[in-house]
Design goal:
Layout: E1 5-6, E2 13-17, E3 21-25, E4 30-36, E5 39-45, E6 52-56, E7 61-65, E8 70-75, E9 78-82, E10 87-89, E11 92-94, E12 101-104, E13 109-112, E14 117-118, E15 138-144, E16 147-149, E17 162-168, H1 177-222, H2 232-235
Antiparallel strand pairs: 1-2, 2-3, 4-5, 6-7, 8-9, 10-11, 12-13, 14-16, 15-17
Length: about 240
């Protein structure tokens, strides 16, 4: 064993040095050099730190540095996250997004430009004036639509969501609220009165029919039964003419 190689290494090291730290790692761990001042120390990690990507070889697994503008990367030429001031696009970190794309400052990526989209217009509303639909000849009618897709920063802005136009209606008088209420009350009272009158008439009719039926029953009970008239042919006895 080399004098600089220590026995009983810790932290996942297969071999190590008192001065340089890990020299090799246990299986499946990644070897990476960490700089501490002017000194580099070898360490063994289960995954590579930010700014590095892992490469596996038969003899050793290593962590290699990403490009300078990458915060994290899959390989040296394919970034997955960029450092501040750069925007990610197709694995590359760019200071400015290509034409047809825009910078998303929330995700720090170059994304497609999204234009505003609106729904179809609704039918025109009834013709009104000051919230009323009567008592005027010229009024206004309105139609609306909804925004179904809001635009991105560089997308085309949304159009108006409402339109109005003048309209003409056949002039008619507005029914006064008090008068209308009074008419409704009178109609309801008249209806109730008619119903009460019909109910009384039906009750009187039933009472009269019941009284007539009871009177007929009483007359039948008090009237004597009629005797049957004698049969004249039976009462007339044959005359004996022999004497």
């Amino acid at each position: 064993v080399h004098p600089n190689v220590s026995q009983g290494c810790q932290g996942g090291c297969a071999t190590c040095s008192d001065y340089n730290g890990c020299l090799s790692c246990k299986p499946r761990l990644f070897f990476v050099l960490e700089r501490i001042g002017m000194k580099q120390i070898g360490v063994c990690l289960s995954s590579c730190p930010s700014g590095y990507y892992g490469t596996r070889y038969p003899d050793i697994n290593k962590c290699a540095k990403c490009k300078a503008d990458c915060d994290t990367c899959f390989t040296r030429n394919f970034c997955t996250k960029c450092k501040s001031g750069f925007y990610l696009y197709s694995g590359k970190c760019l200071e400015k997004c290509p034409d047809g794309l825009e910078a998303n400052n929330h995700t720090m990526e170059c994304t497609s430009i999204v234009h505003c989209e609106a729904s179809e217009w609704s039918p025109w509303s009834p013709c009104t004036k000051k919230g009323k639909t009567c008592g005027f000849k010229r009024g206004t009618e309105v139609r609306i639509r909804e925004i179904v897709q809001h635009p991105s920063a560089k997308g085309s802005p949304c159009p108006a969501t409402s339109e109005s136009r003048k309209c003409i209606v056949q002039r008619k008088r507005c029914q006064k609220e008090g008068k209308g209420k009074k008419n409704r009350e009178e109609k309801r009272k008249k209806s109730n009165k008619d119903e009460s009158k019909e109910t009384r008439q039906e009750s009187k009719g039933r009472a009269a029919r019941r009284q007539n039926r009871e009177q007929r029953e009483n007359n039948n009970k008090t009237q004597p039964k009629k005797r049957k008239a004698p049969n004249k042919e039976q009462d007339l006895a044959p005359v004996d003419t022999a004497h």
